[in-house]
Specification:
It is built from 6 helices and 10 strands. It has about 230 residues and is of the alpha/beta class.
């Protein structure tokens, strides 16, 4: 059995009501719900939300909302890992157990379910498989602002003379999905104490959406990837 959990709070500080906002003709969360349903990868797809309005929307597109998320894991400081564990324990208390549990982020309209399939195919040998993407610029050459002096400097000055091609390539969470064995979700963290397989997503199909500029970029990339 394979459970998909899409965490979606009712509000967002930076982009109000982000999960419900119209994205190319329908609520942005509906894109990932539809893709999850159509993929047939999951035996159950739920949205963990504290909002009745979101629940009504996702139910229309084929996701279940078997509970409203408790307030203690719905604030600005709650992690998605707490949300996943809550969903697992909810079903375990009803004697419903899943071998795999996949976290799908609600504002990931560029999600391609073939990437999820790749993770499912390799998960036997790992605890987790997650979407990652390469940084566009070597982070070893990152700069910091010295606000008091209004100047900039390198964080690691030792890399000043190192050629870019000689620096290790680095990656970041692509913000699309994390597949994990149920036991791993309950006992481990995908990035600190586990064996996590990277599903590398090209930069053209990745866009974190934290502000209005990000939203515009996501809309552009969505059109290009249709």
């Amino acid at each position: 059995k394979h459970l998909a959990v899409i965490p979606a709070r009712g509000n967002s500080k930076r982009i109000p009501h982000k999960n419900m906002r119209d994205f190319h003709g329908k609520p942005i969360i509906s894109w990932v719900v539809e893709k999850a349903v159509e993929s047939l990868h999951f035996s159950k797809i739920i949205v963990s939300t504290d909002s009745n309005e979101i629940a009504d929307i996702v139910n229309e597109y084929g996701a279940e909302t078997p509970f409203l998320r408790p307030a203690n894991i719905s604030d600005d400081f709650s992690s998605v890992f707490e949300v996943i564990k809550h969903a697992i324990k909810f079903f375990n208390e009803k004697n419903i157990y899943f071998e795999l549990v996949t976290l799908i982020y609600p504002t990931a309209p560029l999600l391609n379910m073939n990437d999820v399939r790749k993770g499912i195919e390799v998960i036997d040998k790992y605890d987790f498989a997650m979407s990652v993407s390469a940084y566009a610029y070597p982070i070893q050459r990152a700069l910091k602002l010295n606000n008091k002096e209004q100047t900039i400097s390198m964080i690691d000055k030792g890399n000043f003379k190192v050629r870019s091609q000689d620096l290790d390539q680095t990656f970041h969470d692509a913000g699309q999905f994390v597949i994990g064995k149920q036991t791993a979700w309950l006992e481990k963290n995908p990035l600190t104490d586990s064996r996590t397989f990277p599903i590398i997503i090209p930069k053209s199909r990745v866009q974190d959406i934290d502000d209005e500029d990000d939203w515009v970029e996501a809309e552009k990339k969505f059109v290009l990837n249709k």
